[in-house]
Amino acid sequence: MGDYPIKSTRNPVELMDQIYGPALQHPELRDELYCQIMKQLTNNNNGLSVERGWQLLWLCCGLFPPSQALLKHTQRFLESRPREPLSAACLKRFQGMLRMEARTMAPHHVEVDAIQQNSSQIFHKVHFPDNTAEIYEVTSTTRIRDLCRSIASNLMLSSADGYSLFVKTTNKVVSMNEQQYFFDNLKELTDVPKKGKKTKEVTPAAVPYLVLFMRKLWFNVIPGKDLKADLMFHFPQELPKYLRGYHSLEKEDLIALAGLLFRVRVDADRSQFVMIPKMMKELVPADQHKIITYNKQAGITVDEAKVRFLKIISAWPTFGCAFFEVKQTSDRFYPNLITISISKQGVSLIDPKTKEVLVMHPFSKITNWSSGSTYFHMNIGNLGYKMDDLLNSYVNMYLHERTLPRTQQTLDLPCRNDSSKLQCNILKQFTFSKSNATPPP
């Protein structure tokens, strides 16, 4: 709290981990933490220390409540200091936490950045597949499923079903767990593993990330039914898969789709015909065929062209599939390189050259699967976690949406004095550095 000087400036988020981490792991330490903060706020004439103490208390009230023995004392402490700028916000968080489960992770840097600015409101940017983004208010106890519903409602989508939040880091995109608190799951996915250091302590580098909102499950997707969803999610998510050649299609569809995509690209500007690459002659008929197709679509808007594109590909069995290019070594009758697709029907193995479906396993026949950092039933590189997540999500929706008549059966998955002293010492040495953090992505 700035009471005692320290040799070097410490990273605020790292200090939060040290202050709140032990109490999150050992509930018996939570009262000790509340007591230490309130004690140091009592009869404290150091203005900076008091300000930081209330910031710590604000964070604490959004992580876990004290025990029943300390409950009334804590509430009385908050109610008796109405002139403090954060007292009302602390009391609101404190009372709200009494009805909720405790957090599992120390405060995320977005929470810390907000309270460093003495703001009790927390905002986070959410990105969409059409390259737009919006800012949403998120509390310390907002669950991911509730944020998804809020985003869907704000965008006026017909339904929030099938959509999910994702975290994109430098090397992967991971779906967030809708049951968890937003900041708990975000911290789990973006925290840098800390290595043990016997000598000089080094501040861990922040992991750059984006929070994405996308369609994850493709149930009851009918192009043209929800125009906002078609333009913001369905078209920009399906176009890359089409261009990568994952679908099997007839030449007539290829020509029609090429014309539609050209309409999307240039709208009504005929001078842009010179942009048609020469190499396209090897993939579709001569350029005049594309121009004929383009002329047939005269008068339609870019948005209408996108919807027509979706209506054509929605008739294909691979519409809405998630594709994974993998190497298999277990079956000599299959190519070494295959494509695995996961859709609302089940899991398919596809020959990437011929686009022939080698085998299709419906969800009703899938009884078990396993995955790790480098495998998913077979050696497939590092995509196992995404396939495992999609399977879990589709199977859960498959059962919960009454697709199957069967009822799903689910398996629901100590205080030491030295720890207390350590927390006390950290609190006394706690100091916020000047915030140079940029807004969240």
Automatic annotation (TrEMBL):
SMART domains: B41, MyTH4. GO terms for cellular component: cytoplasm; cytoskeleton. PANTHER family: MYOSIN VII, XV, MYOSIN VIIB. Pfam families: IRS (PF02174), MyTH4 (PF00784), RA_2 (PF21989). One of its GO terms (molecular function) is actin binding. This is Uncharacterized protein. InterPro entries: Band_41_domain, FERM_2, FERM_central, FERM_domain, IRS_PTB, MyoVII_FERM_C2, MyTH4_dom, MyTH4_dom_sf. Residues 122-437 form the FERM domain. The keyword Transferase does not apply. It is found in: Cytoplasm. It comes from the Eukaryota. Residues 1-116 form the MyTH4 domain. Keywords: Actin-binding, Cytoplasm, Repeat. Residues 338-367 form the PID domain. Belongs to the TRAFAC class myosin-kinesin ATPase superfamily. Myosin family.
